[in-house]
Amino acid sequence: MYEYINGTVKRVGPEYVVLENNGLGYQIFTSNPFLFSKFENQNTTIYTYQHVREDILALYGFLTMEEKMLFIKLLNVSGIGPKGALAILASGAPEQVISAIEGEDERFLTKFPGVGKKTARQMILDLKGKLQDVVPDYFPNLFQEGKHQPVSGNEELVEEAALALKALGYSEREIKKVTPKLASEGKSTDELIKDALKLLLK
């Protein structure tokens, strides 16, 4: 089991980043890979979780240990797999997720892809009162860290954001509904993803 990997970010895509360490390139799936754009070709540490199944061996990565802890707790809920857990973390507001669990707000929880009423109820049953070690104060707003410089080619960035949303499990219909509202200039891909998720969770 890898606790973390320190290396150089070599590639950033809609689903994963590639982190090079000692000549090996690790494919690491994250909730919002474009957050790592600011670390491209730089040395950085990614906290990792190795997921093993009969047909898959995958690494999932996080900027903070607390985010990783919440991911693991979500995986322990029946009905939530790695992809679903990443989609929940991608909201960039884990304190809202924790608040919804503690307040038994099924309506909020069912807004995430792959989370129906049954899974939302299971999340509440399994996690309510058990997240004391994942307190909101330890979670930085991941989308606020390291603002990018304004960029041009907004259409291409919106397309990248749409691909990332699709990788998280949102449908084409849901994505097409929000992407026209993302046409403001001067925003980076991770900021556009944040804006889209806010719209999707309304």
TrEMBL record:
<dbReference type="GO" id="GO:0009379">
    <property type="term" value="C:Holliday junction helicase complex"/>
</dbReference>
<dbReference type="GO" id="GO:0048476">
    <property type="term" value="C:Holliday junction resolvase complex"/>
</dbReference>
<feature type="region of interest" description="Domain III">
    <location>
        <begin position="152"/>
        <end position="202"/>
    </location>
</feature>
<protein>
    <recommendedName>
        <fullName>Holliday junction branch migration complex subunit RuvA</fullName>
    </recommendedName>
</protein>
<feature type="domain" description="Helix-hairpin-helix DNA-binding motif class 1">
    <location>
        <begin position="107"/>
        <end position="126"/>
    </location>
</feature>
<comment type="function">
    <text>The RuvA-RuvB-RuvC complex processes Holliday junction (HJ) DNA during genetic recombination and DNA repair, while the RuvA-RuvB complex plays an important role in the rescue of blocked DNA replication forks via replication fork reversal (RFR). RuvA specifically binds to HJ cruciform DNA, conferring on it an open structure. The RuvB hexamer acts as an ATP-dependent pump, pulling dsDNA into and through the RuvAB complex. HJ branch migration allows RuvC to scan DNA until it finds its consensus sequence, where it cleaves and resolves the cruciform DNA.</text>
</comment>
<dbReference type="Pfam" id="PF14520">
    <property type="entry name" value="HHH_5"/>
</dbReference>
<dbReference type="InterPro" id="IPR011114">
    <property type="entry name" value="RuvA_C"/>
</dbReference>
<keyword id="KW-0234">DNA repair</keyword>
<dbReference type="GO" id="GO:0000400">
    <property type="term" value="F:four-way junction DNA binding"/>
</dbReference>
<keyword id="KW-0233">DNA recombination</keyword>
<keyword id="KW-0227">DNA damage</keyword>
<dbReference type="InterPro" id="IPR013849">
    <property type="entry name" value="DNA_helicase_Holl-junc_RuvA_I"/>
</dbReference>
<comment type="subunit">
    <text>Homotetramer. Forms an RuvA(8)-RuvB(12)-Holliday junction (HJ) complex. HJ DNA is sandwiched between 2 RuvA tetramers; dsDNA enters through RuvA and exits via RuvB. An RuvB hexamer assembles on each DNA strand where it exits the tetramer. Each RuvB hexamer is contacted by two RuvA subunits (via domain III) on 2 adjacent RuvB subunits; this complex drives branch migration. In the full resolvosome a probable DNA-RuvA(4)-RuvB(12)-RuvC(2) complex forms which resolves the HJ.</text>
</comment>
<feature type="domain" description="Helix-hairpin-helix DNA-binding motif class 1">
    <location>
        <begin position="72"/>
        <end position="91"/>
    </location>
</feature>
<dbReference type="Pfam" id="PF01330">
    <property type="entry name" value="RuvA_N"/>
</dbReference>
<comment type="similarity">
    <text>Belongs to the RuvA family.</text>
</comment>
<dbReference type="Pfam" id="PF07499">
    <property type="entry name" value="RuvA_C"/>
</dbReference>
<dbReference type="InterPro" id="IPR012340">
    <property type="entry name" value="NA-bd_OB-fold"/>
</dbReference>
<dbReference type="GO" id="GO:0006281">
    <property type="term" value="P:DNA repair"/>
</dbReference>
<keyword id="KW-0963">Cytoplasm</keyword>
<dbReference type="InterPro" id="IPR000085">
    <property type="entry name" value="RuvA"/>
</dbReference>
<dbReference type="InterPro" id="IPR036267">
    <property type="entry name" value="RuvA_C_sf"/>
</dbReference>
<dbReference type="InterPro" id="IPR010994">
    <property type="entry name" value="RuvA_2-like"/>
</dbReference>
<dbReference type="GO" id="GO:0006310">
    <property type="term" value="P:DNA recombination"/>
</dbReference>
<dbReference type="InterPro" id="IPR003583">
    <property type="entry name" value="Hlx-hairpin-Hlx_DNA-bd_motif"/>
</dbReference>
<dbReference type="GO" id="GO:0009378">
    <property type="term" value="F:four-way junction helicase activity"/>
</dbReference>
<keyword id="KW-0238">DNA-binding</keyword>
<dbReference type="GO" id="GO:0005737">
    <property type="term" value="C:cytoplasm"/>
</dbReference>
<dbReference type="GO" id="GO:0005524">
    <property type="term" value="F:ATP binding"/>
</dbReference>
